Amino acid sequence: MAIYALSMAKKGGRYPDNRTALLWTLGCAILSFVGAGFLGFAHTLPQVNMYTHGTLVTAMHGHMAFWGAYACLVLAIVTYALPNLTGRKLQDTGMNSFAFWTSNIGMVAMTLAFAIAGIAQVYMERRLGMDFLAVQKEIEVHFLGLILAATLFTVGIIAFIWNFIRFGLPVGEVRR
Ligand code: HEM
Ligand code: HEM
Question: Which of 2, 72, 89, 149 could tie 110 with a disulfide, CB 3.0–4.6 Å?
Fold first, then answer.
């Protein structure tokens, strides 16, 4: 379905009048596939889940799945619907594409940080039998990476909200 979405966007034959909405839509198709489909399946099999259950591997999957499947979908709909509802083509902006790239690169980096921390946690806790809190101490450094990635993600979200408020309010217009 992700490949179908990409090829349909490519073969569509004409440029859509709202490219940023298409960007968020394709982001949704790709990240929900990677986050839910791929990373979800990766720890579904009992042989894997008996080690990874309830660890940061779960958080790795949960974040990208929720972000890709639901958050990106909602932001795509907002970006598509607002110009149609307001009659102003103002959601399709540089700041909205900036929001797309920073939040998505931030979320991919967050997922990587969770993944590395999760794999290390599984190994130490479930293979070497180390204590939960001792392991948390060992993987502390990965949370610094998580915070850095999350900062980038947050910058993207702030940019989206900023863009939304900037163009969302009917300033200086007569309403009927
Ligand atoms: C939009 C789709 C999805 C979303 C939003 C989502 C989100 C989540 C979240 C938030 C958790 C953690 C739950 C908790 O904290 O207890 C979770 C767990 C899990 N998900 Fe998904 N998921 C999705 C799809 C999938 C798919 C398609 C698969 C398998 C192919 C999958 C396999 C799993 C498994 C095995 C767990 C349990 C992990 C554990 O044992 O700790 N998920 N999911
Ligand atoms: C600033 C960005 C974010 C940071 C730093 C962050 C960090 C975290 C951390 C550290 C946990 C606990 C993981 C654990 O110990 O198992 C967590 C859980 C969770 N977060 Fe986030 N998160 C962020 C954004 C998000 C977003 C955008 C979503 C959804 C779209 C989300 C959904 C969840 C869910 C569903 C859980 C519980 C999942 C689980 O138990 O595996 N988070 N988050």
Answer: 149
